[in-house]
Amino acid sequence: MRAWIERQRCLIDFSVANLGRRKARNLGLLGAYILLVFLLASVVLYGDALRREARLLLADAPDIVVQRLSAGRHDLIAADRLDALRALRGVRRADGRLWGYHYDPTLAANTTLQVPLVNPPGPGETVLGATLARARGLNPGDTLALRGDDGAIRAFRITGLLSSASELVSADLMLVNEADYRAFFGIPAGFYTDLALTVGNPAEAGKIAEKILTRQPGSRVILKDEMRRTYDAVFNWRQGLLLTFLGTVLAAFALLAWDKASGLSAEERREIGILKAIGWETGDVMRMKFWEGALLSTCAFLAGYVLAYLHVFHGGGALFEPILKGWSVLYPKFTLTPQIDLMQLASLFFLSVLPYTAATLAPVWRAATLDPDEVMRE
Amino acid sequence: MIFQPPALALLLALSLNALLMAVAGVFAVRLLRHWNPALASERQIALERQSYLVSSLAGLSLLVSLPALALFVYTAERMAPFFTGAMCAVGSLNANAWGWPALIGLLIYFFIATAWLSLHHLDRLGWDYPLIRAKYRLLLLLAPGAVVVASLGWLYFLNLHPEVITSCCGSLFGAQSESVAAEVASLPAAQSMAVFVVTLAVTLLVGGVHLVTGRLGRLYGLLSMVSLLVSLSAIVAFISLYIYEHPNHHCPFCLLQTEHGYAGWLLYPPLFLAAASGMGVALSTASAGKDSLKTLGPMQARRLAWVSVLGFGVFGLLVAGYILRSNLVLIGA
């Protein structure tokens, strides 16, 4: 075993020296390799972190949301349905929610007005999402004036800002109390935007949803699990689509690697010829070339991955942000939590190192089987 | 549903694997027809040279088979939330007709691949290509195998539809099911445990005898495979129950989840490694009949036996640890 390790160590030493002798060519290939790993790893890291973030946020979402549909469109729902829902076995709590969108011409963007279920602001007061406040240049104590559905201007005094920790969901949020909300949108008492249910046992949510649909036809029932699945599917799809496009980059890189490995210079051919003449076997030359590839791959993989990590978790994933996150005028600023797992690394390895290795095998073999006699005569 | 990184990575790896193995398979046919080391013809020299390339191609593609197997199970596990009714990888695999064939195909492929790698290593040890025909005959089995496995992978991922209502592990391993898995799950815990302990002990004992005397290598190979099957049955019959601390939860896939401390990722690798190296012990022992491997074959068998015995030992210790730590009382309650 020790002899084997010693042999590999010598081969590695030789390979490193070999790589160093052809710096320009190898640095070019290394640069392309790092770029490939960087692009692939950025997509994977960013998508995974977003999915995780969405899952954490949805942990606080209601188990079931019931909406009324009118001619296939979301409509206001009558408050008297709440009692029927509360009476269903397994439902622990049912609340009416009030929320809606208001187009703000100053920002040319939609803001979300919502009535919080607990601690609503006082009359004429509001609490703003951090992004919205930033975009309008507002601070606590300032007044925000908006034109309501009846055309009248209503002023809201800002009593506070929502914490930036919740910015992913609160970017464009404006919290007001129930009376202000109803007056602003002209919604009569006894109606809600939708109804939120909390169930005792989440495993029963599906059954409860079935009962709601039977007893209140014309409703749309949304389960928390469905929301999570949809978010997962959306992020997966965006991530996968981007990776598929990057497949062209991968193919180009594999061609480059093939070309670089095939194009042996006269000096290299002579070198291999001499090595074989002094007793190296085909297998030894292949092992040496294998180590060259392995060293290059390891360096590229590590450098590319670290750069992608910095890009995603410290640089906000600027390159892929609009594609993976989606886009909006009031865009939330949030920091993603770094998350690395073994299978993520395995996926990246399969997507980058494996094609490189496969592309260089045949040229490496061709180099290793050169006839020393023939090469030295050239 | 193929648009997700692990699935794309897996399909790329399986497709490359199939491509490389197809090339290797064509070469294997040529080699088996024309190989004659007694001749110094141009064709023979070309075959010898090309065998280096093909061995490397096959070696690379086969080395990919183990991470591919892990990635497939991981992807199935990760997709479970997309299917109504799925709680773990079982639900995802049940989501269409290709899930289980793909998993079983990958498992079989992994074991044949490790057998090929053992033969290849032994062949390289000898000076006269002692196992080259056996090696390339096995490659004739592996090459179509790689194409089948890749096709199954594509069929599985392309035919996944999120609206499908699938069944969870509870129904596959439940008492009402008539599957083999349910039969195994319904085995009485005490008897299963006895069979598991005796099989593992006998395997380790024979492994010990082989390490000391160099004999019983073939028997050890056979026992390794028996131990693998018995251990997998034991995981379903009682080990999983102790880990979940639940008398009716038999799923061998939920063990891979975070909430069970990734127990599966600790248990399966040493078990599979031990069984694969055990098979290598039998092959290495059998190869001692060749002149150039008379001494090298048994040496290789001994090395692999160490790995295998260690693997089974670690697996046994882990199982004992999980059972002792568990709050579940299955026997003598």
Description:
The complex is a heterodimer of chains A (378) and B (333). In chain A, strands 1, 2, 4, 5, 6, 7, 8, 9, 11 and 12 form a ten-stranded mixed β-sheet that branches. In chain A, strands 3-10 form a two-stranded antiparallel ribbon. The model of chain A has no long low-confidence stretch (mean pLDDT 86). Chain A has two domains: 7-58 and 230-377, no CATH class; 64-199, Barwin-like endoglucanases, CATH 2.40.40.20. Chain A has helices spanning 2-21, 23-58, 81-86, 130-136, 167-170, 178-185, 205-215, 224-262, 266-277, 282-313, 321-325, 342-368, 372-377, and strands at residues 64-70, 73-75, 77-78, 91-104, 109-115, 125-128, 143-147, 153-161, 173-175, 191-192, 194-199, 219-223. Helices cover 56% and strands 18% of the residues of chain A. The radius of gyration of chain A is 31 Å and the shape is elongated. Chain B folds into two domains: 1-167, no CATH class; 170-333, no CATH class. Chain B has twelve helices and no strands. In chain B, helix 5 packs antiparallel against helix 6. The radius of gyration of chain B is 22 Å and the shape is flat. The A-B interface holds A 43-44, 47, 206, 225, 228-229, 232-233, 236-237, 239-241, 243-244, 282-283, 286, 343-344, 346-351, 354-355, 357-358, 361-362, 364-365, 368-369 and B 2-10, 12-13, 16, 20, 49, 52-53, 56-57, 60, 64, 67-68, 70-71, 74, 81-82, 84, 124, 162.
